[in-house]
């Protein structure tokens, strides 16, 4: 597999906040582009099974996902996906469904969609920040609480839908090393919201997705991302994405390099720049000139491929900077 791309959507609506929304018209334009240009739209289970078995997938492989299970996914997105006969995944919060929250689908609606090609998967019980401890909560207590959250949420999905894929989309895309270890221990695949292509070297506790809603819904800019490639690398040592170190740094060890080092670039924000320190032909340390803002931010790194003209490698490191 050269690379695959997972797309992430939230609302399909003209009236809800634009930051997490795409109109039904624009969403259909995305689907039309994918179908017309012969992208291979496969289910998320098919993609992850290929990763786990080190199996090759064809170029231009795409999986479509939605977070939160909003009712407009049922009324606006699902009919379009059914029209084009495309598989997709919806990550849901079982506790919110059980509480009858008005803005999310019911179990009956999700069950109906599952019979039409949708995969229903775990987004935690109620969309809390899973890596954060409660006041006066030690690590052991936190682990027990989050373990129960993940496991009971999966049980509810299995009871209502019949699925038991053991995928967890991290709420807000935030995860730390302890949460990754727990996800791995439970036999789950962890899925974030940081951008990037997926290849065989990706860590299955932090798979990336390209956001395709809000400012990222522009089809012209999305086209480049759809054919991105995954760097063949490891992060050594493993990095904690939630940190008080500011600026943080990350070391990438490339296995096979299909790009020129001179054009490998990392971007942070308009008022900050990345510092790249190459230690040898395959290892680079990435940090920042200035401190990062508190909260969520990321390093986005790209490089044009030598072998695949017009395509870019893309990697994103998400950070949550704490005081």
TrEMBL record:
Localization (cell): Secreted
GO molecular function, one term: hydrolase activity, acting on carbon-nitrogen (but not peptide) bonds
NodB homology domain: residues covered: 60-279
Record carries keyword Signal: yes
Entry keyword set: Signal
Cellular component aspect of the GO annotation: extracellular region
A GO biological process held by the record: carbohydrate metabolic process
Pfam name, any one: Polysacc_deac_1
Chief localization: secreted
Full protein name: Putative polysaccharide deacetylase family protein
